[in-house]
Specification:
Elements: E1 2-6, H1 12-22, E2 26-30, H2 41-46, E3 54-57, E4 60-63, H3 65-75, H4 88-112, H5 121-143, H6 156-165, H7 175-178, H8 180-192, H9 197-200
Parallel strand pairs: 1-2
Antiparallel strand pairs: 1-3, 3-4
Helix pairs in contact: 1-3, 1-6, 4-5, 4-6
Amino acid sequence: MYTLYHFQISCSSAVKMALEVIGAEHKTVIVDLFEGAQHNADFMAVNPLGKLPVLVDGSHTFTQGEAILIYLSQKHKNAQLMPDLASVDGMEALKWLNFVASSLHGHFTKIFHPEKVSTDHDSVKQNAEEEIVKLLNFVSDRLAQSPYLAGEKPTLADLYFAVVLGWGQVLSFDLLTRFPEFEVYKKRLQTTFPQSETLQNI
């Protein structure tokens, strides 16, 4: 039995999707980011950084979403969420996972929390959005060549990118109107993983 500390709009949704796809028994502890629950003493005792996600597996507590996702994919290899990590296909999947988790997520974080970058919040948000558009164009070009980010089969990178697509409401434009191919992609992913309720509702 896993325990996932989670909030639905956060990147912890990628871990929730992975657990659902795997079919792993788990319970969810909601940490309401809007109410600042990540700073409460109880949660800080679990993760002193005050960040989601956190996954508890027996006596082990894991933090950092990308690392948790890789851990789950390697522990539950039958789910085929990642290729052999020591292969060229595995490297491609890891590359795309890092791209989404670091590059794309990083710029969205600047929009969510511009105060952590500068007192000029509008400039921070504008600059971040310009970078996000460049990255989304890169993803769009990729998906014109293959059905999923790392190739013919979905990987953890796709689950993470599905979460990022759900953050489009913070942008100054409608993401799925500007990039209608992402709507087609999301539906393809939902069809591939019908067992993930989180993915169906993102």
